[in-house]
Each structure stands twice: as C-alpha cells, then as structure tokens.
From TrEMBL:
<dbReference type="InterPro" id="IPR029044">
    <property type="entry name" value="Nucleotide-diphossugar_trans"/>
</dbReference>
<comment type="subunit">
    <text>Homotetramer.</text>
</comment>
<feature type="site" description="Could play a key role in the communication between the regulatory and the substrate sites">
    <location>
        <position position="59"/>
    </location>
</feature>
<dbReference type="InterPro" id="IPR005835">
    <property type="entry name" value="NTP_transferase_dom"/>
</dbReference>
<feature type="binding site">
    <location>
        <begin position="179"/>
        <end position="180"/>
    </location>
    <ligand>
        <name>alpha-D-glucose 1-phosphate</name>
    </ligand>
</feature>
<dbReference type="GO" id="GO:0005524">
    <property type="term" value="F:ATP binding"/>
</dbReference>
<dbReference type="GO" id="GO:0005978">
    <property type="term" value="P:glycogen biosynthetic process"/>
</dbReference>
<keyword id="KW-0119">Carbohydrate metabolism</keyword>
<dbReference type="InterPro" id="IPR023049">
    <property type="entry name" value="GlgC_bac"/>
</dbReference>
<comment type="similarity">
    <text>Belongs to the bacterial/plant glucose-1-phosphate adenylyltransferase family.</text>
</comment>
<keyword id="KW-0320">Glycogen biosynthesis</keyword>
<dbReference type="InterPro" id="IPR011831">
    <property type="entry name" value="ADP-Glc_PPase"/>
</dbReference>
<keyword id="KW-0547">Nucleotide-binding</keyword>
<dbReference type="InterPro" id="IPR005836">
    <property type="entry name" value="ADP_Glu_pyroP_CS"/>
</dbReference>
<dbReference type="Pfam" id="PF24894">
    <property type="entry name" value="Hexapep_GlmU"/>
</dbReference>
<dbReference type="GO" id="GO:0008878">
    <property type="term" value="F:glucose-1-phosphate adenylyltransferase activity"/>
</dbReference>
<keyword id="KW-0067">ATP-binding</keyword>
Length: 380
C-alpha cells in the first residue's frame, strides 16, 4: 500500500554533551518531564499529524530506546496499515553499515523506504521538545511545489551562530544556507526537520554513493547540493515552543519550564496529547512529614521529604529530612535521609546516600545513570 508521507526519525545520537546521563542510553531515550522520554514528543507529533508509518533510525546504546518504543502501540501506531520500525546498523557482504551522518543513515535504509513507497519523506530528529503539525508543513510543501522544505524557527540573533541559518527571499524560498556562521545574516534557524520529495532525494543519494559517497549529512552536503542545482527549496516557519535539549543546561531548563501549568507547550491540551509508554506503578504516597510545593510527582513515588519546584519521575524514593529544590529526579532513583539537592539532575536508577549535599548553584549538578553517591553497596 502506497504511503503518502513516511516519517524517518534519526534517533541514534550518542548525546555526549549530556555526559553521565547518556552513558548507557541514547539521547532520545533520556527521561523528561517525569512521565516521558525525549523521543515521545516527536512520535506523538507523528501520531497527531496522521502519519501512520514511522521508521526510527537507532545506533548508539539502543536497548532502552527499542524497549520503550516497542511496536508503537503507545502512540497508536500498531494498526494493520501503520507501524513503527526500528532500523539499526547491520552488516552485509559489503561490510559494516554504521551510519556516518544524517543523509547516510537515510541512504542505508533505502530498501525500507522503497518498501513503504512514499511520495514524501519527513526527516525528523528524536531529541527535541516541541509540538508541530507535520500535515500543515506538508500542505505548505505542496503549495510551494517544493522539492525540499526545511522547518525554521526564529532564534535570538546573538545565538544564531550556533545554528544552520537559512537566508530566504520574500517568498520564503531559501537562496542560501550558512552552517553556524560567525556573522549570521538573519535569525531563521534550521530545526533539523525536512520534507523531501522521495524520488528526487533517492536519485541524489544513489548517484552520490555510486560515485564519491559525499552526501553524508543533510546540512553540510544535501541542502547545499539542492541549492546549487536550482531545486525549489523553501522554509517552513514554525512559531511555538521548541527546545533542543542536547546539553545539561538546556535539559534542566526545559524541565523547569515544564513544571509551570501555563507553559507554552501546553501539555494538558487534550486535542494534541503527548503519548508515552508508562510503567504500571502504584499511586504516589506522601507521608506526614512530606511537603510538596509547585512540583510534579509521578506514580510510584514515596516522598517523606520536602520538594520545591522539582520533578520526581516514576518510582522515586525520597526519605525523611531531605530537601529537593529546582531539580529533576529521573525514574527509579533513591534519595536517602537528610539530603540537600539544589539545581540538579539525578539520573535514572541513581542512589544518593544519607546526608549528601548536591549543590548546583553555580553549575547544574549531575548524578549519572545508575550512579551511586555517598553509600557503599554490598557486592552481594
């Protein structure tokens, strides 16, 4: 059955800037907002936009991500004519198939894409927090008779040098692309979201890899190639909440914003739900000594301490005398007695022993995935 638009989510990033938090899991699988993982927002956008077939390209430490996504049932993507397919590197008679870049990852999965037979391919990142109607982007792509559409968002001009910048004419046709320019000409930053006419992109990739194999990355190679070839390349302007949570600071900041009930993302909007695969845990329990203010507390939590403007993910334990403020505690973490935690991210399944002090006043403090602080564990 022909697919009008197939989504390909690039979710293989190692996330080195998140340090200890991605030691054992890929960046898109990092917990976020108490109940979610980062990739949930992109998958939910696909489901809400009516995209029924999604390929998820993984590479680095994919186990947790694969288990989380499963067959896509949590996002309603497990029907007869819909589904989520995990696409991992593989070996063949030609040798290793490790993905060298974004475009190379799509090239290596041409067989899967051809099987789905799409007219358009939507290329997405699995590590951004946002809501977007991809159907609206597709309609704009068609109206522009575009060969490639690039989603862009206005960023502060002082930060524009951190992004790929799209210079456009009065009709939003892209006439120049600058990769992290020192002196940007405008503030239209690429969001790493692309709609390609599949027939054209397929030809470009096949021709490249039959010759020099230079089409490795969309930003560095494919987009400049399209512009040089005179293709119709258009910007799709997005206005709304969008966060690249690729650093400790941005991940902490996005979580803190997530706490506020009137935040722009509007997580409580029933017309555009954010879905996730959730664990089955008992209701959270607050003891007589617990004090919780302006915080998000998820199922399975046991709280006997003081929580201020923080997020406790599922199955977190906080014992008596402990004070947690302006912090994120990821699933399964155990916090001992009389602990002081301020401006910190506590990783999944971490253990913080009694009387520990974790202070991120000057720089966001991080306890890593399954890291043990201030306690000696019996090896047996």
């Amino acid at each position: 059955m022909k697919t009008e638009m197939l989504a390909m989510i690039l979710a293989g990033g190692q996330g080195t800037r998140l340090g200890k938090l991605t030691k054992n899991i890929a960046k898109p699988a990092v917990p976020f907002g108490g109940r979610y993982r980062i990739i949930d927002f992109t998958l939910s956008n696909c489901a809400n936009s009516g995209i029924r077939n999604v390929g998820v390209v993984t590479q680095y430490q994919p186990l947790a991500l694969n288990n989380h996504i499963g067959n896509g049932a949590s996002w309603g993507l497990d029907g007869i004519n819909s589904g989520v397919t995990i696409l991992q590197p593989f070996s063949s008679s030609e040798g290793s198939k490790w993905f060298e870049g974004t475009a190379h990852a799509i090239y290596q999965n041409i067989a899967y894409i051809d099987q789905m037979d799409p007219q358009y391919v939507l290329v997405l990142s699995g590590d951004h927090i946002y809501k977007m109607d991809y159907e609206d982007m597709l309609e704009t792509h068609k109206a522009n008779n575009a060969s490639l559409s690039v989603a862009v968002i206005e960023v502060p001009i002082k930060e524009a040098s951190r992004f790929g910048i799209m210079n456009t004419d009065e009709n939003d046709r892209i006439i120049e692309f600058e990769e992290k320019p020192e002196e940007p000409k405008n503030n239209l930053a690429s969001m790493g979201i692309y709609i390609f006419n599949w027939g054209r992109l397929r030809n470009v990739l096949m021709n490249s890899y039959s010759k020099d194999g230079q089409m490795i990355d969309f930003g560095k190679h494919v987009i400049p190639n399209y512009l040089e070839s005179g293709e119709n390349v258009f910007a799709y302007r997005f206005s709304g909440y969008w966060k690249d949570v690729g650093t400790i600071d941005s991940l902490w900041e996005a979580n803190m914003e997530f706490i506020e009930p009137d935040m722009e993302l509007d997580i409580r909007d029933k017309s555009w739900r954010v879905f996730s695969k959730n664990t089955i845990s008992p209701p959270h329990f607050l003891t007589q000594t617990a004090a919780v203010k302006n915080s998000l507390i998820v199922d399975g939590c046991y709280v006997s301490g003081e929580i201020n403007h923080s997020i406790l993910s599922d199955d977190v334990q906080v014992k008596e005398g402990t004070v947690i403020s302006d912090s994120v505690v990821m699933p399964g973490a155990t916090i001992g007695k009389n602990v002081k935690i301020h401006r910190a991210i506590i990783g999944e399944n971490a253990i913080v022993g009694d009387d520990a002090v974790i202070d991120g006043s000057e720089e966001i403090a991080v306890v890593g995935y399954s890291e043990v602080i201030g306690v000696t564990l019996d090896e047996n």
